[in-house]
Amino acid sequence: MAPTSSADYLTQRSQLIAQDRSLRADNAIAKDLSEDERKADEILRRIRTREAQSVWSAENSTKHRHGSQQLFPGMEFLTARETIVETKLFDILSKMPKGGLLHAHLGAMVRADVLLELALSQPAMHVRVPEVISKATIDSVLPQFRGLPQSQWTTNESITDPAYVPNSWVPMKNARDNFSAVLGGPEGFDRWITSAMTINPAEAYGTHNSTIEIWKKFSSTFGVSEGLIFFEPVLREYIRAYFLSSIDDGISYLETRMLFHAKTILDAKGEETMDHKGFLELYDSVVEDVKAKMKEEGREDEFVGSKVKLSTHFKSFIQCSLRATQIIYTVLRILTPEDLEWYLEDCIEMKKKFPHLIAGFDFVGHEDTLRPLIDYAEPLLRFVARQKELGISIPFMFHAGETLGDGTMADMNLYDAILLGTKRIGHGFSLIKHPKLLEICREREICVEVCPISNEILRLTGSMPMHPLPAIMNQGVRVALCSDDPAIFGNMGLSFDFYQVFVASEVNGLATLRTLVWDSIKYSSLEGQQEEEAFAKLERRWPVFIRYILDTYGKFEA
Amino acid sequence: MAPTSSADYLTQRSQLIAQDRSLRADNAIAKDLSEDERKADEILRRIRTREAQSVWSAENSTKHRHGSQQLFPGMEFLTARETIVETKLFDILSKMPKGGLLHAHLGAMVRADVLLELALSQPAMHVRVPEVISKATIDSVLPQFRGLPQSQWTTNESITDPAYVPNSWVPMKNARDNFSAVLGGPEGFDRWITSAMTINPAEAYGTHNSTIEIWKKFSSTFGVSEGLIFFEPVLREYIRAYFLSSIDDGISYLETRMLFHAKTILDAKGEETMDHKGFLELYDSVVEDVKAKMKEEGREDEFVGSKVKLSTHFKSFIQCSLRATQIIYTVLRILTPEDLEWYLEDCIEMKKKFPHLIAGFDFVGHEDTLRPLIDYAEPLLRFVARQKELGISIPFMFHAGETLGDGTMADMNLYDAILLGTKRIGHGFSLIKHPKLLEICREREICVEVCPISNEILRLTGSMPMHPLPAIMNQGVRVALCSDDPAIFGNMGLSFDFYQVFVASEVNGLATLRTLVWDSIKYSSLEGQQEEEAFAKLERRWPVFIRYILDTYGKFEA
After folding, report:
1. Do B435 and A20 touch (CB under 8 A)?
2. How many beta carbons lie within 10 A of that of residue A343, not counting itself?
3. Do A20 and B504 touch (CB under 8 A)?
4. Which of A334, A524, B347, B546 would suit a FRET pair with B367, their CA atoms being 20 to 30 Å apart?
5. Three-state secondary structure along B119-145?
6. In this protein, which residues make up the domain named Adenosine deaminase (chains A, B) (predicted)?
7. Chain B touched by A536 (CB under 8 Å)
8. Residue in A406, A434, A507 nearest the CB of B406
9. 3-state secondary structure of B480
10. Which of A70, A460, A468 is the closest to B213 by Cβ?
11. What burial letters (b/e) apply to B479-507, b meaning 16+ CB within 10 Å?
12. What is d(CA A508, CA A30) in angstroms, rounded to the nearest whole number?
């Protein structure tokens, strides 16, 4: 019906907008906001609008410009980061209880500087390079690290000395202490390693500005960091640091993808004796350690699984909680279907031994260039059948559609992920191209683990405003925001991802944030009492967060 | 139903893919391809796959790299252009009959070098600048052109001479002939003007790499070119050049947006006497001129509206045809609603005088920063009512959603465009965010004028693979590919836009191309016999195009 009057027009307009947004997951909560939440929502929106002008406007570009980047809300993260942390909106979001982190790769969860410190404290940790490091080679040669058995420790002094024998091991501490002054000395060593384990703006937005090129750099970082991380004494502290820093950012539950490709990890003696069972025992024991630490701090009631009745006393929302943490068993999508069989069996064995830890199964690696899911359909169908026989459940949590391709192998992975019954979808960047799959995801509540900053740095999107997230949300698909590989991208925690998403849309409000947080628990692997406890905890922490917004910004931003 | 066997799995997979693509406009044609078309489709797909490796692969990036751009199919147009024109796929697409061009702004339809030549031939054409042009000012100062009345002609010699009096008029020919040798002499003048009328890669992908910044440059180009174009003797030749170059690219119908903001145009004497009626008479007379020229060349049967019975003899598909051309009356979205009234009345007057020419009404200008459609809802509703009274039809062809915004003024223009009954949508870049609007567009067959290269250069998308077009097409929304402002972007004709779209998707095939071409007539303003003639013409030209593919590439690419 064509409108016949202005009043009629405005009525029809409101109805059309409401219809258009009727599938959104945040509708129910938006209608149900408390009075305080409404006020907090208004404050958030007002700050967003003001900071779009005061911080992110084009007029500030010349002042803040890095290279040729322009300032705008949701701009490229790597050049925006230092500005983001100065904003009021970031302060607020960093205080928000985040719920669960559902898409995170263990190999990239701790800041490079922290990892370096952890590794340097281990005399067993050695480094080698295929060429002497000099001005000519420092930008192209990558270091390899390894915790050696004591019998193989060396007294070599330097990897920058022209006398260095290529590929010979040098104690990491020596290599650092004696790093050539011309290359910056010990700090130069740190910069070099950090640069090899992270993506910098010049790479993402310049030399490697395409999905293919940036994946080369991205993949290479794991080759450097894995030698530092996967040595038992470092690994233990690394996992602890990952847990504690996540708690600090308001994350109360972690569902971690662990790459089980290697069949063993180096034990404390530098021997390859720690099998997958050994790793899971270690992981479990760190969970217990962190529980103990939290108990010392009077926060023991904040763990899922602890039988202690939840305390009604809640000191401060800044006292974040680690509820529980689970592992998604992942393998590389370079395996042959035949080789996959061993891992599927191993995954089942681990699930039997650690039923509380193993939460799912997934493949990792560049979808555009490695094997598509359909290659593995047969063994995966048998894997599902076998679980039924055994009465266990290891749901698929497949990466799928992390691509710009249309009708390519990587894009088509979405069909297979859904046909194979995936519980969630990792990334699902190209899902917006698929009307039927959007409908299925909406109806079956297949939650999409969206990793905004990862997608942008890996060049699937030029910036947040170009990201398909708003389109996915308007289709009523459930979403959990995730950080993916924050140690490489610099988006530690979840505050940065929430920030980028929140500033790039005028539709998103407090109800959206609340929905994303709650859904990160709802679509996690938590069930029954654990899930109830997680929700109860959020219900108690949320009003404290709202109170922070009102108390801190209510007056000044009125 | 979960699949129970591999065969079952593959069946379910095919069904799911078919369901997912069931809304696509090219389905019907895909089922109906002739044997030759099937072969041509295979050839096209094979060439696309091969050239993705031989031309667009990352391995070629170092050889072809411009700045820090990487090579990939659908990469940034301005750095890809010189590579595109060397490909086999481009050769094929440049031979394709394109149907209609439905979104094209008259002010940016002729190559800068051609426009310069046209203007230079006019002794009345003068130029002035606010500062002497020197090495220090050439990159920032913009020239202003004007065809002066003879009484005001000057004998000034140069705009680079330090003695130049700022803002004084210099004959364009003098300014060019005497352009300082330090600045490149006459060729330096041409480079300077061309640069002021076009967007170069350093701007789009560097200094102006955001929607706000690039729109500043984009808008400024019109200020330079309008002085050259809108002077009767130039304008006449300009329109002719636009028609002929479009015909050369296989475009057989033009629906041109003309900005009627200025109430007069300079006549041949340099006086502001040519009103909107005068302009339409001029436009009409060029149509007649071109008809006459075509008649001379034995191609008079290729015009819509000519009463001559269509010849069944068809010499060569390279002999393209101009069927007809119509005007969409546009105004700037800076008008107050009150000021709009005059233009709406004027538009009605022009429609009465030139019923065959006036095809629609639209607003132009940056949606992110200028007035939203809702500001004009009242006068526009009255405009619709008035048309009914008068028994005329001037459908809206609104620009809407040419933005990265989510829930912003520009994004919300889509609601208003649809509520006001728009016949087509210009750009509709943000349409993919709106499930209900996608449904309405699909059901009411509101065709979206998608301008791929324009969107990319104006930084709505980083490259073609990031563009929402595949998502829009899978939603069953009808699309016409358009070039928007090719003189500024360098995408003359439609071959480049078809190229970028075709290489960025594995789903698109010959059926997609054919659908896009046919839909550009179906959703044009052609009706009745004119429309039938246009389709008949396409039906005759298409097999010649298919034959070209088979004959030229059938053997070598088998």
Report:
1. yes
2. 22
3. no
4. B347
5. HHCCCCEEEECCCCCCCCCCCCCCCEE
6. 326-533
7. no
8. A507
9. strand
10. A70
11. bbbbbbbbbbbbbbbbbbbbbbbbbbbbb
12. 10
Distance CA A62, CA B210 (A): 13
* A290 confidence band (pLDDT: 50, 70, 90): confident
Q: Phi/psi class of residue B502: alpha, beta or left (left: φ > 0; alpha: ψ in -120 to 50)?
A: alpha
Backbone angles phi, psi at A545, to 5 degrees: -65, -45
Q: Which among B3, B20, B212 has the least Cβ separation from residue A436? A: B20
Cβ–Cβ of A406/B506 closer than 8 Å? yes
* A1 chain-B contacts, CB cut-off 8 A: none
* Residues A205, A80: Cα–Cα separation, whole Å: 12
Nearest to B20 by CA among A470, A445, A412, A376: A412
Amino acid at A507: V
To the nearest whole Å, the CA of B470 is away from the closest chain A CA by: 6
Please give the Cα distance from B483 to A245 (Å, whole number).
50
Which residue of chain A comes nearest to B460, CA vs CA? A466
Q: What is the pLDDT of residues B333-392, one digit of tens each?
A: 999 999 999 999 999 999 999 998 999 999 999 999 999 999 999 999 999 999 999 999
CA dist B348 and B390 (Å) reads 9
Give the mutation candidate from A207, A434, A469 for the B interface (greatest B CB count, under 10 A): A434
A153/A148 Cα distance (integer angstroms): 6
What pLDDT, on the 0 to 100 scale, is given for residue B309? 31
pLDDT number for residue B319: 33
Q: Do A406 and B434 touch (CB under 8 A)?
A: no
pLDDT in tens, A448-492: 999 999 999 999 999 999 999 999 999 999 999 999 999 999 999
Strand order in A358-364's β-sheet?
A99-105, A251-259, A324-332, A358-364
ipTM confidence: 0.94
Q: How far apart are CA A253 and CA A102, in angstroms?
A: 8
- The reply to whether B466 touches chain A by the CB within 8 Å rule is yes
Is the CB of residue A62 less than 8 Å away from at least one CB of chain B? no
Residues of A in contact with B474 (CB under 8 A): 433-435
Domain coordinates of chain B in residue numbers? 92-112+228-542, 123-197
CATH number of A92-112+228-542: 3.20.20.140
Least confident segment among A305-314, A325-334, B473-482: A305-314
Residues of A in contact with B378 (CB under 8 A): 6
Q: Is A406 on the interface with B (CB under 8 A)?
A: yes
Predicted confidence at residue B153, as pLDDT, reads 98
Which tens digit of pLDDT belongs to each residue from B85-126?
Answer: 999 999 999 999 999 999 999 999 999 999 999 999 999 999
Q: Which chain A residues are within 8 Å of B17, Cβ to Cβ?
A: 412, 415
Confidence of residue B70 (pLDDT cuts 50, 70, 90): confident
Is B541 near chain A, with CB under 8 Å? no
Nearest CB to A432 within list B61, B209, B471: B471
Nearest to A434 by CA among A405, A454, A460: A405
Give a three-class secondary structure readout of A408-456.
CHHHHHHHHHHHCCCCEEEECHHHHHCHHHHHHHHHHCCEEEECHHHHH
Report, as an integer, the average pLDDT of B148-157.
98
Q: What is the pLDDT of residues B177-208, one digit of tens each?
A: 999 999 999 999 999 999 999 999 999 999 99
Mean model confidence pLDDT for chain B: 92
Within 10 angstroms of residue A153's Cβ, the number of other Cβ atoms is: 15
By Cβ distance, the residue of A6, A408, A459 closest to B377 is: A6
Q: How far apart are CA A488 and CA B342, in angstroms?
A: 59
CA distances from B537 to A30, A490, B323 (A): 55, 58, 9
What pLDDT shows up at residue B315?
Answer: 35
Q: How confident is the model at residue A29 (pLDDT cuts 50, 70, 90)?
A: very high
